[in-house]
């Protein structure tokens, strides 16, 4: 019995893979290029050898280029560049994915609006029951607390230090400070310009009830929508 001819593909050398990686990288979308650049930098910071990166990137780039036709990004395939870097360097994707993952911006905004808007409503409502019978929030003031609160949380969480990545703490402190000061200034001076007739004050008990409902909604929606990357 004669054996059928078998085709044996030549083994690629490291230089072959480097050249192939360059050709594959050129085919990436801008978003995927940015992903690979960040990943490359994080692996360099982690001390990975160039030879190891060449082998890893060869497999990754082939996969990413193939999935681009289906409008699937590198982030969707491998998670954030930080998660992938930690996985490749330490093999701890599962242990760190939760800490590094962040939901879509609109979910972060919704969660933040309910958190900070609800918090200030509750504080105002409690002050009514502790002796300040005039405590209450104007209707427009209350709405602005929710709207600006969501924006503040979006900014703060965007600059939050990422596990496994060096630096970024100063940016986080600066972003948090600027955001909170800006919020206070807008609330203090912006609402003062609103005519009282357009900003009727809600009594303390109603303000407290709105705050409690906001907290309940935050708790429910965070689980329902699986919101991740928020302040609490």
Could you give a quick summary of the protein structure above?
The protein is mainly alpha-helical and 232 residues long. It has helices at 14-26, 30-45, 50-68, 74-78, 81-90, 93-100, 105-129, 139-158, 169-190, 204-224; strands at 136-138, 201-203. It folds into two domains: 14-100, no CATH class; 105-224, no CATH class.
Quote the average pLDDT: 82
* Largest sheet entry: 2 strands, antiparallel
Number of spatially distinct domains: 2
Write the element-wise H/E pattern from the N-terminal end onward.
HHHHHHHEHHEH
Q: What is Rg? A: 26 Å
Ends distance = 71 Å
Low-pLDDT segments, ≥5 res: 1-9, 92-99
The percent of residues in helical segments reads: 55-70%
Number of strands: 2
* Beta-strand content bin: under 5%
DSSP summary: helix tally = 10
Secondary-structure-derived class: mainly alpha
Strand order of the largest sheet: 1-2
Globally, the shape reads elongated
Keywords: Membrane, Transmembrane, Transmembrane helix
Protein name: DUF1129 domain-containing protein
Pfam families: DUF1129 (PF06570)
Organism: Alkalibacterium iburiense
What does this structure look like?
The protein is an all-alpha fold and 232 residues long. The protein has two domains: 14-100, no CATH class; 105-224, no CATH class. It has ten helices and two strands, in the order H-H-H-H-H-H-H-E-H-H-E-H. Helix 5 (81-90) runs antiparallel to helix 6, helix 7 crosses helix 8 and helix 7 packs antiparallel against helix 10 (204-224). InterPro entries: DUF1129 (IPR009214). This is DUF1129 domain-containing protein. Pfam families: DUF1129 (PF06570).
């Amino acid at each position: 019995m004669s054996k059928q001819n078998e085709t044996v593909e030549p083994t690629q050398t490291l230089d072959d893979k480097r050249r192939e990686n360059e050709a594959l990288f050129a085919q990436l979308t801008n978003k995927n290029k940015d992903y690979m650049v960040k990943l490359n930098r994080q692996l360099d910071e982690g001390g990975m050898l160039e030879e190891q990166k060449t082998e890893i990137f060869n497999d990754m780039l082939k996969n990413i280029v193939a999935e681009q036709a289906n409008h699937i990004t590198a982030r969707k395939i491998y998670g954030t560049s930080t998660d992938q870097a930690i996985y490749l360097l330490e093999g701890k994707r599962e242990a760190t994915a939760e800490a590094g993952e962040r939901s879509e911006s609109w979910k972060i905004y919704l969660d933040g609006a309910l958190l900070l808007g609800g918090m200030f409503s509750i504080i105002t409502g409690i002050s009514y029951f502790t002796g300040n019978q005039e405590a209450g929030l104007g209707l427009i003031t209350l709405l602005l607390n929710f709207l600006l609160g969501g924006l503040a949380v979006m900014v703060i969480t965007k600059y939050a230090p990422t596990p496994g990545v060096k630096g970024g703490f100063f940016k986080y402190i600066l972003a948090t400070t600027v955001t909170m000061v800006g919020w206070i200034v807008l609330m203090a001076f912006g609402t003062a310009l609103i005519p009282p007739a357009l900003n009727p004050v809600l009594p303390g008990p109603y303000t407290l009830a709105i705050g409690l409902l906001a907290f309940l909604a935050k708790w429910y929606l965070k689980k329902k929508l699986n919101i991740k990357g928020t302040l609490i």
